UniProtKB/TrEMBL annotation:
This protein's name: Peptide chain release factor 3
Keyword check for Endoplasmic reticulum: no
Organism: Bradyrhizobium canariense
Tr-type G domain sequence ranges: 21-286
InterPro entries: EF-G-like_DII (IPR053905), EFG_III/V (IPR035647), G_TR_CS (IPR031157), P-loop_NTPase (IPR027417), PrfC (IPR004548), RF3_C (IPR032090), RF3_dom_3_sf (IPR038467), RF3_GTP-bd (IPR041732)
Record-listed GTP binding positions: 30-37, 98-102, 152-155
Name of the gene encoding the protein in the UniProt record: prfC
Subcellular location: Cytoplasm
Single Gene Ontology MF annotation: GTP binding
Family to which the UniProt record says this protein belongs: Belongs to the TRAFAC class translation factor GTPase superfamily. Classic translation factor GTPase family. PrfC subfamily.
GO biological process, one term: regulation of translational termination
Nucleotide-binding listed as a keyword: yes
């Protein structure tokens, strides 16, 4: 009997390991306009997840079915929603976590990066490394997330290619290994040379998708384009082959080296190479740190953490969706999970997969996958779900707000309702709410100004609460803590009028400006002021 049990167990283990090893969970980081949306569409086309390019940023009807506050997104032409797209390609399951492209909502973006194992960095060939790419790259580096580079828009005039690679190396302190190399530039761009296997893949005529590079002799390129200086191309390819650093998987996995692909997302060129590179080099679901132990992805016991909450994605489903990244084991529909924060059990009756933008009910998901869990406010950002064990994943951050405002209610009778609404909004991560200990009205803090517009629109639409925001005497908020409980209590007692509680009841010091903050900090011995908090 026990033999049978052991055999069944080991079969389950190996099928779990097989499922986990075919997952690739990644995000695309880029500066707005570099081509992230276009590339996303083309990647999804490869996986057959959508059959009509253009759906990712679809305008018209699909958009109109979204709820009211999404109007803000529409009007400003930016993407507020972090969506998850799953597709299969060559036997692998890719989970692409989309990050909002706008400067605002960076908090959401950062949290999304806690849920991926690798990232694709898209660079506009005419522009090189831009501000936002750099910022996002820094977040990836902090988390040791390996990066694959896609230099896009090669069909247009670009900057010198050697110079682009040099810029990556210097500004990001990241070695580069070109896996492909552009042949011809701008209007004369003919395709890419496969640096690893040799051969040229042509932009026009076959091979552009997944086919192997066509073995075209360099000399023959002249026949295709009379303007091409074939001997210069030859020299350049020799130089690239001789001078490039060889690709080293370990250096890549440790975040020291990036393989570089060239292409044109718009022309669907080079995207297949990129996807194959992702499949081959990008890591399988990684182990995740918790406050008890490191949790391996192949650990048979289910565990997950919530990194994003989305409300009202679809008016037909008036609920909240918590996006949870599975860290270990397998999640089956109907199973009960333990919400570690409360110790309560919750049934996962209809976890959802996200195939492009259609929600579909999933029967099972494995470590590395992201599932949407509908709930009515039970789940919060940073929550850990397990199959019964008691541990919390660490490392889902909350950032100190850059803008602090007081919420003014036009109808004072609705104060209680506002309190509830703000609580919900802060649990969803829309804004942070700080309740001053001296009983003054609540303050809201945001990282980007757009969050305030979203909050106002949602309070109005969902709670019939018209509000205004007022500049408060406080501009900055920092979490305060100390190893010495007494010291913290003394500090709090001496500064009550500047102390507030965040959504978890953790103390926050509110400062009028940087000067006050610096002044207080210098005098508060043994107190730590932080602008990032680990959400638990
Ligand atoms: P995002 O803001 O990063 O999502 O960028 P989009 O994908 O929306 O692209 C921004 C603009 O660049 C759009 O007008 C695209 O059509 C264009 N674009 C994207 N990829 C390419 C490309 O490979 N070549 C050219 N010529 N244009 C591109």
């Amino acid at each position: 009997m026990s033999d049978i049990a052991t055999t069944a167990e080991s079969t389950a283990r190996s099928s779990l390991a097989a499922e986990v090893s075919r997952r690739r969970t990644f995000a695309i980081i880029s500066h707005p306009d570099a081509g992230k949306t276009t590339l996303t569409e083309k990647l999804l086309l490869f996986g057959g997840a959508i059959n009509l390019a253009g759906q990712v940023k679809a305008k018209g009807e699909r958009r109109n079915t979204r709820s009211d506050w999404m109007k803000i997104e529409r009007e400003r032409g930016i993407s507020v929603v972090t969506s998850v797209m799953t597709f299969e390609f060559e036997g692998l399951v890719f989970n692409l976590l989309d990050t909002p492209g706008h400067e605002d909502f960076s908090e959401d973006t950062y949290r999304t990066l806690t849920a991926v194992d690798s990232a694709v960095m898209v660079i506009d060939a005419a522009k090189g490394i831009e501000a936002r790419t750099r910022k996002l790259f820094e977040v990836c580096r902090l988390r040791d997330i390996p990066i694959i580079t896609f230099i896009n828009k090669m069909d247009r005039e670009s900057r010198d290619v050697f110079e682009l690679l040099d810029e990556i190396e210097k500004t990001l302190a990241l070695d580069t290994t070109p896996m492909t190399w552009p042949v011809g530039r701008g209007r004369e761009f003919l395709g890419t040379y496969d640096v690893v296997n040799g051969g040229v893949r042509l932009l026009e005529g076959g091979g552009a998708k997944t086919g192997a590079a066509q073995q075209i002799e360099i000399a023959e390129l002249a026949k295709l384009n009379a303007n091409l200086d074939v001997s210069a191309v030859k020299d350049e390819l020799e130089l690239v082959t001789a001078a490039s650093k060889p690709f080293e998987l370990e250096a890549f996995r440790e975040g020291h080296l990036t393989p570089v692909y060239f292409g044109s997302a718009l022309r669907n060129f080079g995207v297949g190479d990129l996807l194959q590179g992702l499949g081959k080099f990008a890591p399988e679901p990684r182990a995740q740190e918790s406050d008890q132990r490191k949790v391996e992805a192949t650990d048979p016991r289910m565990s997950a953490f919530v990194f994003k909450i989305q409300a009202n994605m679809d008016p037909n489903h008036r609920d909240r969706i918590a996006f949870a990244r599975l860290c270990s084991g397998k999640l089956s529909r109907g199973m009960k999970a333990k919400l570690v924060r409360t110790g309560k059990s919750m049934p996962l009756s209809s976890p959802q997969f996200f195939f492009a933008q259609d929600r579909s009910v999933a029967d099972e998901a494995y470590a590395g996958d992201v599932v949407g869990i509908p709930n009515h406010g039970t789940l919060r950002i940073g929550d850990t779900l397990t199959d019964g064990e008691d541990f919390n994943f660490v490392g889902v951050p909350s950032f100190a707000p850059e803008i602090v405002r007081r919420v003014r209610l036009t109808d004072a009778m609705k104060a209680k309702k506002l309190k509830e609404a703000l609580q919900q909004m802060s649990e969803e991560g829309v804004v942070q709410v700080f309740r001053p200990r001296d009983g003054a009205p609540a303050l809201v803090g945001v990282v980007g100004a757009l969050q305030l517009d979203v909050l106002k629109a949602r309070l109005d639409a969902e709670y019939s609460l018209p509000v205004e925001f007022e500049v408060s005497e406080f501009q900055l908020a920092r979490w305060v803590s100390s190893d010495d409980r007494k010291k913290l209590d003394t500090f709090i007692a001496a500064n009550t009028s500047s102390i507030a509680d965040d959504v978890d009841g953790d103390p926050v010091y509110l400062a009028r400006n940087e000067f006050y903050l610096g002044y207080t900090r210098e005098r508060a011995e043994g107190i730590e002021f932080t602008n990032v908090k680990d959400v638990k």
